[in-house]
Amino acid sequence: MSLSTNVCFKSMIKFSVRTLFLTTAGLWYGCNTPTTAQKTPVSPIKPLTGAPTTPPAASKSNVKPYEEVITKKAKTSKGLFIVHKLDDRFYFELPDSLLGREMLASTRFVRTPTGAGYGGEQINRQILRFEKGGVEKVFMRAVAYINVSADSTAPIYKAVRNSNVDPIAAAFDVKAYRKDSTGKVNLATVIDVTEFFAGDNAVLSMSGFMKSVYKLTGIQNDRSFIEGIKTFPINTEIKSTKTYGVSPPMPNFGPPSPMPSVTLPGGVIAGAITMEVNTSLMLLPKVPMRKRLYDRRVGYFSNGYTVYDEKLQQTEDQEFAVRWRLEPKNAADAASQKAGELIEPAKPIVYYIDPATPVKWRPFLKQGVEDWQKAFEQAGWKNAIQAKDFPEKDSTMSLEDARFSAIRYFASDIENAYGPNLHDPRSGEILESHIGWYHNIMKLLHSWYQTQVGAVDARSHKNQFDDALMGELMRFVAAHEVGHTLGLRHNHGSSFATPVEKLRDKNFCAQNGHTSSIMDYARFNYVAQPEDSVTDLMPRIGDYDKWAIEWGYKPIFGTTTPQEDHQILNQWILEKVEPNPRLHFITEAHPYDPRTQSEDLGNNAMQASTYGIKNLQRILPQLSEWTKEKGQDYENLREAHLNVVGQFRRYMGHVTKYVGGIYDTPKTTDQKGAVYQVTPADLQRDAVAFLQKQLFETPKWLIDPKILTVLRPDQGVDMVRGMQETTLTSLFNEDRMQRLIESSSLNVNNYSLDHFFTEMKNGIWSELRTRQPIDNYRRNLQKVYVERLLSILNPSGAPQFGGGFSFSGTISPNPVDPKKTDIVSMIRGHLTELKSEISGAAGSSDKMTRYHLQDLIFRLTKALEPK
Question: In sequence order, which residues have a C-beta less than 8 Å from that of residue 2 and are 6 or more positions away?
Answer without folding.
Answer: 27, 28, 29, 30, 416, 417, 418, 419, 420, 480, 481, 484
